[in-house]
Amino acid sequence: MTQSEIRQSNATQPEAKLGQEPNASAKAIDVAVGILMRPNGDVLLGQRPQGKPYAGYWEFPGGKVEANEDVASALRREFMEELGVSIVCAEAWCCVEHVYPHAHVRLHFYISRHWEGEPQSLEGQAFAWQGAVDVQPLLPATIPLLQDLDEVRRAVQS
Ligand SMILES: Nc1nc2c([nH]c(=O)n2[C@@H]2O[C@H](COP(=O)(O)OP(=O)(O)OP(=O)(O)O)[C@@H](O)[C@H]2O)c(=O)[nH]1
């Protein structure tokens, strides 16, 4: 995936600040998050493995952007490492910040409808394709996005 393949979608929202107001002195950690969306609107979620904060919580796949890496490259790397999936193209969807006890994160959400490979559990994590998302518990920063995501899902189905 190249920068030119990262498109801004109409669904992009202004940055929202969720949860506790981020502490200006805490540096936000950038995280690339990808939502694989099938033609019927189903989306892929994974369960955080043991040993990580919020182990057992469900999330959209992704991970931290490394030093000297852009968000699109991080997205592609994380999907290959976690799921063995090659993202062919993805659209920036929204960006939210959340302050957890363990970190202040800035989550860059992308939606991809075009990828290569079937998702595999390369890190031993459970994953699930979902219509209306009903796995629990979900990471707190992700929950408020589900309503907007449902609108995107419905739009691709119609
Ligand atoms: N992937 C992902 N991370 C999310 C979501 N929502 C959310 O709050 N996060 C937060 O974003 C951060 C992601 O960091 P991570 O620890 O999973 O990243 P990583 O895979 O690079 O981990 P590592 O440092 O062990 O290599 C966590 O603080 C996690 O709580 C989501 O939907 N997907």
TrEMBL record:
Residues 1-13 have a biased composition (Polar residues). Its EC number is 3.6.1.55. Belongs to the Nudix hydrolase family. SUPFAM superfamilies: Nudix (SSF55811). InterPro entries: MutT-like (IPR047127), Nudix_hydrolase (IPR020476), NUDIX_hydrolase-like_dom_sf (IPR015797), NUDIX_hydrolase_CS (IPR020084), NUDIX_hydrolase_dom (IPR000086). Pfam families: NUDIX (PF00293). Keywords: DNA damage, DNA repair, DNA replication, Hydrolase, Magnesium, Metal-binding, Mutator protein. It is an enzyme of class 3 (hydrolase). Residues 27-152 form the Nudix hydrolase domain. Gene3D superfamilies: Nucleoside Triphosphate Pyrophosphohydrolase. It catalyses: 8-oxo-dGTP + H2O = 8-oxo-dGMP + diphosphate + H(+); 8-oxo-GTP + H2O = 8-oxo-GMP + diphosphate + H(+). This is 8-oxo-dGTP diphosphatase. The lineage of its organism: Bacteria, Pseudomonadati, Pseudomonadota, Betaproteobacteria, Burkholderiales. Its cofactor is Mg(2+). It comes from Undibacterium cyanobacteriorum. Residues 1-23 are annotated as: Disordered.
